[in-house]
């Protein structure tokens, strides 16, 4: 059961809470994300990326943002402070402490959130579980990319507009759109997702599955919007010109006769962006955002 009380609003910078243009999601403004109390007296056993003792929940949330956690466990009554400064290092001779981390630390920053089954929540009257995702993740084929977010790779090829609409219709509760790639980390991790999909499915299907070389992401150029230059926007209307990072494939962005009025962006397995005809049928990557539609 999801609790909507005790929500905390924390300011962070990002490329935005970016719903599909057709979604009308009531996402928070681009500069806001929040941790919500999801389950009382429960603790998630999702992988921990950082643990410490904090005096307040706000300090724990600050640590979660600092270490890019997507969820956290918190015990309001601080545990005995111990001189164990352990962060992102599971190879020390402290494995017993990590196995019993809830006995040593009252703030656990988690790699990934729970899904709708809450399958890795355990009963613990001392802890409450918080998540950046206000709604349970109902998709069965989602992929959690630690430090970045939750994504779905759809391999059935469609045009750009249908890809956007299909992302939107993924779930009735959460804001979902094509994934944004306006950072080096996102571009590389999502490109790695394509390569891992190819390796996994080729092994399972004896090389009979078609490889995914390109996938639509949330960038598009339309001449009616920017008649004087080739300027790309995401579905929230944010210009790529606001972002310093670029990963264009050599020769892109293309301004050929075929693409002079409109072009869309596909991510390649080489961690680059390729401009393509928006009618071209390709796989696509959806991103499940932290805000709910009804927020």
UniProtKB/TrEMBL annotation:
InterPro entries: C-type_lectin-like, C-type_lectin-like/link_sf, CTDL_fold. Residues 151-287 form the C-type lectin domain. PROSITE patterns: C_TYPE_LECTIN_2 (PS50041). It holds the Pfam family Lectin_C. CDD domains: CLECT. This is C-type lectin domain-containing protein. It comes from Glossina palpalis gambiensis. The lineage of its organism: Eukaryota, Metazoa, Ecdysozoa, Arthropoda, Hexapoda.
């Amino acid at each position: 059961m999801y609790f909507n009380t005790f929500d905390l609003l924390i300011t962070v910078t990002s490329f935005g809470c970016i719903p599909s243009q057709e979604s009308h999601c009531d996402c928070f403004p681009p500069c806001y994300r929040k941790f919500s109390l999801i389950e009382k007296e429960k603790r998630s056993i999702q992988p921990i990326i950082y643990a410490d003792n904090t005096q307040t929940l706000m300090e724990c949330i600050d640590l979660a943002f600092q270490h890019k956690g997507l969820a956290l466990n918190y015990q309001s009554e601080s545990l005995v402070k111990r001189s164990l400064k352990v962060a992102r290092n599971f190879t020390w001779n402290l494995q017993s402490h990590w196995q019993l981390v809830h006995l040593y630390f009252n703030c656990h920053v988690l790699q990934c959130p729970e899904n709708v089954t809450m399958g890795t929540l355990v009963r613990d009257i001392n802890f409450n579980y918080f998540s950046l995702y206000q709604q349970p993740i109902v998709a069965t084929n989602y992929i959690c990319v630690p430090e970045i977010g939750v994504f779905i790779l759809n391999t059935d090829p469609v045009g750009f507009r249908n890809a956007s609409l299909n992302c939107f219709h993924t779930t009735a509760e959460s804001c979902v759109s094509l994934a944004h790639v306006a950072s080096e980390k996102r571009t590389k991790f999502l490109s790695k997702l394509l390569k891992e999909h190819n390796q996994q499915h080729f092994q399972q299907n004896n090389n009979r599955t078609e490889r995914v070389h390109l996938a639509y992401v949330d960038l598009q150029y339309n001449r009616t919007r920017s008649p004087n230059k080739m300027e790309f926007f995401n579905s929230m209307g944010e210009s790529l010109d606001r972002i310093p990072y670029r990963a264009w494939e050599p020769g892109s962005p293309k301004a050929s006769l075929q693409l002079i009025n409109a072009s869309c962006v596909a991510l390649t397995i080489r961690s680059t962006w390729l401009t393509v005809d928006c009618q071209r049928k390709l796989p696509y990557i959806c991103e499940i955002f932290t805000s709910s539609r009804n927020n």
